[in-house]
Every structure is written in C-alpha cells, then in structure tokens.
Specification:
The complex is a heterodimer. Chain A is α/β, with parallel strands linked by helices. Chain A is built from nine helices and 17 strands. In chain B, helix 1 crosses helix 7. Classes of the chains: A alpha/beta, B alpha+beta.
Amino acid sequence: MDNSKYLKLFSDCIPVKGASRSCIYDLGRNTYQLIPNALYELLVTDEGKKISDIIEQHDNHPVIIEYLEFLLTSEFIYLCDKKELKRFPKLTHKYLSPDHITNAILIRDQKSNFDFKTIINQLEELGCKHIQLIITEDINIEILKSLIDHTNKSILQAIDVTIPWKNNDDIQNIIELNKQNKRLKRVYFYNADHNEIINKEELDILILKNSKEDIITNSSPDPSYFRVNMTLFNESLGYNSFFNRKLIIDEKDNIKRTLDQKDTKIFGNITSTKIKEIINDEGFRKYWNVNKDSIKTCKDCEFRHMCVDTRTPIHENQEWHYEKKCSYDPYTNTWTN
Amino acid sequence: MILILSTQDDLATNRVIDWLQFYNKPFIRINPEDSISIKSITISNTDFEYILGVNGKEIKTSEITSYWYRRGEFNFEASLKNNNHVDLYLNRYLGQEMKSTKDFLYLILNNKKSIGNIQHNDTNKLYNLLTAKQCGLKIPETLISSSKSQYSNINAKKTITKAISNGFFNIDKYAVGTLTKTIDKEEIQDSFFPSLIQEHIEKKYELRIFYIKEQFYSTAIFSQQNKKTKVDFRNYDTNKPNRVVPFKLPKKIQKKLKKLMSILDLNSGSIDIMVSKNDDYYFLEVNPIGQFRQVSYPGNYYLEQIIAKELIDE
C-alpha cells in the first residue's frame, strides 16, 4: 500500500449504514459485503484523504491498516493522486424509467373471461415489460399456453407464472412452453407434494409445498430475494421497490394496487376501464413513494436497498410500518423463521 | 415523424424507442429485414416529394422531422431476378439505377436534423488517428509495415498489434472479432502482410466516452489490475468484471476532442482514450456508432433518454 496516495472509493461501491452493522453495495458486480459500522464511518469521513494521514489520525492502529488492506484487495477502493480525486465524481442516484407500468400481476381463473390479449395490448402501450401470471385453480396446460401465446410479438421481456401443482408431467409441459416462448422465465408450482428447484438455461422451475398465499403475498423478506443492482438501488432510494409502477388485475378483472386481501380499494374493472385512465390516480399510486427510508425498522436495516418487500405498509401516527414482523432484526442482526 | 434506421437485434434502439413512446412522439423504425419500395420521387419546379413504401405503409420524406442512423441499411427491393446471361448485365445496370435512388434518400435524410449517418460507417481509423494528432491530442506511436527490418523504426519499447479496419470478418454466418495483442519481437517473421504496430502504453485506466450534442459522457474502466483485460478490456472477465465508474474529462482534452469531432463531421460517437501511468491522455479511436449502453448504464447517464430528446427537439 502506497501511503502517499489518496483514498478513493469506487463510485459503484456504496456504503449503506444499518443500526448495528453496515453494508457495501457493489453495484458493478451485483453483490454485497457486510462491514462493521466503524468501517462505514471510515469510508464516509476519510474518503479523499491521504493514506498516511488516515493511519496517523487513527493512532497507527493495526485494525485501520487491516481495514484498508481489505478494502484494497476486495477492490472497493483504489489509491490515486491528489489531482485525480476530482476526476472521479460520485454516481448520481437518478432513477428514471420510460415505462409507466414496469410490472403487472395478472390473476386468472376459469371465470375471468376478459380478453387477455386486450390486457397485454394495454400494458404494452404503457411500456410494461414484466408480468406475473397467477393461476388460482387447476387449468390444463393448453389454456396456459393460449394465454402465453398472446404475448408473442409483444414488447414483454419476462413472464413469471404461478400455478397449482398436479404431477410430474407439468415439468415437461413447462419446458416445452419455454421452448416456444422464451419470455417464460420462472414458474412456481404451489400446493406440491415436495419441494424441488429445477434450473434450465433461462428457465427456473420452483416446485413448492407452500400455499398460493405464501408465494403471492410472501410473508416476510427472504435473503434469497435480495437483489443488488444499480437500477433497483436507485429506485429504492426514492420509491418502494415492490409497489412502484405496479399494477394488479384480480380474477374478477378488477384493477388493484396491492395483493393484500384487506386492501379492498378497486380502481375500476378492466372490462370497462382502460388502464391508462387510472395510472395517474393518487390512490392507485399510494404506496409508490413509500421508500424503505421512511418505514419504521426498515430505515435502520442495512439490507433496505436490496430487499424487494411484498408486504403492504401501514400509515399510523404519522409513520409507516408493517403489521407483519420481518424475520430479520437489524438491531441484533438475527434471522428468525 | 422520427425515422430510425437500425437492425432487428439492436437492443439499444429498443430503449430509445421506449422513451419516444413515453413522450408520445411518432416514429418509424426500419431494419434491413424490412423490404422497401419506391412509390414515387417528384422533383418539380414547385414540389419535391420522396415517397417510400415500407411494409405496406407510405412514408413521405417531407414528413420526417429527424433521423437517427443507428446501423444497417435500407433494403430496396430488387426488381428483377433472373439467371440468364443477358439479364445478369441488365440486373447490374438496374442495381446501379437503384443505388443512385437509394443514395439520394441518404442525402435527403442527412439534410434533416440527424444523429449519425451511413457514410461514416466505414470510418478510417488511420485518418482519425492522424486528425487527432493534428488537433493536439497525444496518440501512440504507430507504424504500418510488412517487414521486420522496418520494425526498429517505431519509437517504443513494447508494442501491440490490432486491426487497421473495424476488426471484424465473417466465416460463413459467424462473425469473428479480433482483439489487441502484444507483439513478441522474437516471433516476428522477416516479411508479413502489412500490419499495424503500435506503441504499448502502460495504462492506468481506459476511458470510454460517448459524445452527443457537444457533451461528453465518460466512464473510466479499471482494466489494468486484471490480467485478462490488461491489453484489451473487451477480453471480459465475467466473474470479476472490471470496475467501470463515471469520469470527468479534463477541459483541455474536451476542447481538443470537440475540434476532432467537428473536423471528422461526427455529431455523435464513442471515443476510446487511454490514460497512461504518467497521466497522459492517448487518443486511440473513435467509433461513429458505438455501444453507448456500456457508458450509459455504469455512468447512470440515461443516454437513451438524451438521444430520444435530441430526436424530438424541434
């Protein structure tokens, strides 16, 4: 380590402070590193300072040298000349999207008869690229296929399907379906007799014992759903990364803003209301701006900008919080299941 | 109406189009897969109109407000298909006729508000290098030679070789790309096909810069620490990708680059610069099209929106 150089954090590595530990979000490599809060403090207060000054300032403490060596070998920091410091600005945290709706959850059963193609066309007009299709009762694969066929030639990029488990034939049927339409990326089977995960090139099949409700309203955040990337990070700073630009159409063709059973608010029925007529409704957008920094407990959590939390926040006593407790406690850094 | 000429598989075009849709602006995208016919071209003392048929729709050039040449070309329908000997020559003649009509269209479009143009497709790297030098930019010492005896003429300790042209060729349907390689002096044969030999710069980092509307959007690529990308950063390491971070280009370099782009008549493009261990900025090349996503995403610059806005602006 050259002590005459200056400490610079790579701008795609962003330290986020939690109640009792912190985290470096590595947006360039889509990963994260947990760090002690003392190291967080060092990164935010000592960046841009001369290495020898930093070491001296901390009374040549061996831990400081150890920290710096760790940051350097992990490529979170680099050492540069003083005049170079100004050449490396911080990343802006601007989040912009040309898509009015980025994600739609469509619930279908045998009674939902509204033309699926029309829904897809309307979503396409609003720039929506991702849909999650939830089938609430046994249907044969041909019906699923006919639904997915409606997305051929659309701008849709990814389709996730949640469907009840019948038997092992389902697996081969899904693989065939994926061959015909590559947009099908992930399939969840619920109410299965066993748990199994199958990964094919660009297709994930998850066979789960869980009930439909478990999967859809996803009880509590789970580290396997953590995602570290620039788009999500920036979105999460200003918006709720689950609810922002999300649209739900339930099995009765009602347009909704959440999957929560208690949220009875309906923004029209797709048979008579056009999606674009309601997307600017303030009520429809109620949860879009409820970012993690404004939610009790979450705001103290080091995972707050990688956690896509499906719970619906509640506003009480001028504060947002969740009714259902999270399985992670950021004050003790412990997980409970 | 905004006209975009691109290729079917170009994802960067899709993202710009998303923004055009967001702003509710009419556009047409033409790919080489689209067959184009000429409906009529009227050049009279009172009127001018060039009408194309694209997938059953009529496009009047007078209604095109701006034009983005991304890549590809217009695929004009061939009029005659025959194998017999006489028709071969006749077809060649008809092809010439068609080419003039097509070139006329490119000329008309270039007079519109536009980003890029097809004439720059075959940009000449050597001419660009020479012009960069004339604009006061530092360039690596460069020699093109076909013999070992000439090799000592290059004023450099270590050398590399890379393509003189765009560096791509096709073997059947497969595209093959060439990378920059260091030269081992011992392995040089006495004579060889004329090749580009260039001074190897000990780099600190590389800059990938996108230029549009006289603005520079730069990123620094830390490819030096990684053995795989030390000589050519395109030799990607997917497990531990190089750090790519936003960078502020010095004003002095900006000024020289602006002059270069103006002389080369490029209103947009991707520029490669290498920053040496001694903090010298070496101009390597400029690509009139370029993969701007590689700058846009890591720099969080939203270049797709900037391009869309540039096409929309009256």
